[in-house]
């Protein structure tokens, strides 16, 4: 059985006081379940939040890491630093970083290797823009992001990869992909993985949906057979909304 995962991506929101408050509210409302619940918070919050989540089933994720483990890279943060703080996951390949920081599949491959070398699990994001969908290249584009990003890994390493399909046109826009569109592309992603690693490995990989996922549409999206949870941006900044998405 593959893991059901709901990850909140706070992006560059909440100062430390607000972050503590939000994390505490989530902890108060969170019931034990078989789902993995993850908070991807700003770098500055880890020391404090790691203490808060200790002993709970909330896990922490970084929103990015550098592709080298250490060195003269002013302002950067390394996977080994996250690992030393008890962080479990790192999000890599988010469309905002692909767009604003020019991160391409080649760089992401290096980041993935560095993260895995520190025993971090990777939430690897893929997804097309509206133009790409309208011109019908979205299936090929998503396959290329996955092939170039993670297909150098062996089957054992693939166990530490979670895929997040996030159509760029649905992120932060209020526009959600329909459950039919999401299921269709998740099946495609799983079949691309199966062609390289076999059905058994592909069936074990959690594939999350992200893009304007909210309490009102989470249940419909998550009830698709190949949707194993969500990567939640805006709606993860409100404890009640985030919890009702987890319950969905
Ligand atoms: P959103 O963001 O839920 O605000 O659309 C999702 C994401 O970027 O991970």
CATH topology: TIM Barrel
Quaternary form: single chain
Spatial arrangement of strands, main beta sheet = 1-2-3-4-5-6-7-8
Instruction: Quickly count the helices.
Output: 12
Radius of gyration: 17 Å
Number of domains: 1
- Helical percentage: 40-55%
CATH class: Alpha Beta
Biggest sheet details: 8 strands, parallel, barrel
What is the CA-CA span between the terminal residues?
18 Å
Order of helices and strands: EHEHEHEHHEHHHEHHEHEH
Uncertain runs? none
Strand content: 15-25%
How would you classify the helix and strand content by structural class? Answer: alpha/beta
Description:
The protein is an alpha/beta fold. It has a single domain, classed as Aldolase class I (TIM Barrel, Alpha-Beta Barrel). The protein contains twelve helices and eight strands. The protein has an eight-stranded parallel barrel with strand order 1-2-3-4-5-6-7-8, surrounded by six helices. It starts with a strand and ends with a helix. 2-phosphoglycolic acid (PGA) binds next to strand 8.
Write a compact overview of the structure shown.
The chain is of the alpha/beta class and 248 residues long.
What features would you highlight for this structure?
12 helices, TIM Barrel, alpha/beta, about 250 residues, single chain, globular, 8 strands, binds 2-phosphoglycolic acid
């Amino acid at each position: 059985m593959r893991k059901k995962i709901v990850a909140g991506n706070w992006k560059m929101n909440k100062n430390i006081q607000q972050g503590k408050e939000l994390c505490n509210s989530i902890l108060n409302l969170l019931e034990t379940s078989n789902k993995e619940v993850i908070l991807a918070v700003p770098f500055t919050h880890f020391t404090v939040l790691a203490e808060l989540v200790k002993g709970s089933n909330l896990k922490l994720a970084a929103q990015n890491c550098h592709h080298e483990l250490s060195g003269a890279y002013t302002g950067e943060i390394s996977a080994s630093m996250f690992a030393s703080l008890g962080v479990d996951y790192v999000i890599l390949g988010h469309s905002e970083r692909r767009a604003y920081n020019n991160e391409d599949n080649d760089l992401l491959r290096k980041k993935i290797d560095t993260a895995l070398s520190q025993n971090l699990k990777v939430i690897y994001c893929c997804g097309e823009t509206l133009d790409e969908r309208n011109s019908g290249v979205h299936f090929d584009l998503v396959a290329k992001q996955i092939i170039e990003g993670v297909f150098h890994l062996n089957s054992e390493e693939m166990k530490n990869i979670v895929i997040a399909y996030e159509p760029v046109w649905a992120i932060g826009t209020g526009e959600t992909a329909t459950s039919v569109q999401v299921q269709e592309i998740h099946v495609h992603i799983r079949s691309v993985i199966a062609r390289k690693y076999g059905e058994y490995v592909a069936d074990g990989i959690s594939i999350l949906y992200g893009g304007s996922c909210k309490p009102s549409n989470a249940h419909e999206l998550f009830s698709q057979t190949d949707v194993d949870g969500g990567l939640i941006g805006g709606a993860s900044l409100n404890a009640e909304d985030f919890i009702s998405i987890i319950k969905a």
